[in-house]
Amino acid sequence: MIVAIVVTHHTLAEHLIATAEFIAGPNENLVGISILQNDDVEAVRKRLVEMIKKYHKDGKKVLILTDMFGGTPSNICLALYEPDQVEIVSGVNLPILLKLAGGLKDEVQSLKEFAAEITEYGRKNIFTAAEFLDL
User: Fold this and answer.
1) In what order do the strands lie in the sheet with 86-90?
2) Angle of helix 94-103 relative to helix 12-24, nearest 10 degrees?
3) 111-124 vs 94-103: helix crossing angle, rounded to 10
4) Does the pLDDT value for residue 105 go beyond 70?
5) What is the DSSP letter of 82?
6) What are the structural domains of the chain?
7) How far apart are CA 110 and CA 114, in angstroms?
8) pLDDT, tens digit, 9 for 90 and up, residues 27-74
9) Cβ atoms of residues 123 and 96 within 8 Å
10) Helix-then-strand count for the chain, H and E
11) Dihedrals φ, ψ of 9, to 5°?
């Protein structure tokens, strides 16, 4: 089983998850952590480490989704990467969370393969109006 932790600046994580759940229904394997301006980075890192330990104890692998590569959320999370146990994807968007809503229930592939699949899915759902309208 895979659990996804969305880690973002400000309250984006909670809003993205709330929107995904509005569309696809609740998912107990999708949680968020928002990093506010005055948050202590070390305290956030420790909170993430504890969450990961808890999920591993429950037999779950962890997929961390951050808002943008190079930002504080991503930098904190990259240090927590652990092959086959903790994977990180930067650039989370609503299509990715909707894909996760259906894909977190059963693990049918490796964590690395699953992360690659949802990353590609997120990319494929970004386009301009001209591309969509074939102008």
Assistant:
1) 30-35, 2-9, 61-66, 86-90
2) 50
3) 140
4) no
5) B
6) 2-133 (3.40.50.510)
7) 6
8) 999 999 999 999 999 999 999 999 999 999 999 999 999 999 999 999
9) no
10) 6, 4
11) -70, 150
- The Cα–Cα gap between 44 and 81 comes to 15
State the pLDDT at residue 131: 86
SS3 (DSSP) at 58: coil
| Average predicted confidence (pLDDT) for the chain | 93
Q: Assign 135 a pLDDT band (cuts: 50, 70, 90).
A: low
Look at residue 103 and tell me whether its pLDDT is greater than 80: no
Which amino acid is it at 40?
D
Tell me the C-alpha distance between 13 and 32, whole Å: 5
Residues 66 and 72 sit within 8 Å (Cβ to Cβ): no
42-50 long-range contacts (CB < 8 A, ≥24 apart) are 44/76, 45/76, 45/79, 45/80, 48/5, 48/7, 48/76, 48/77, 48/80, 49/80
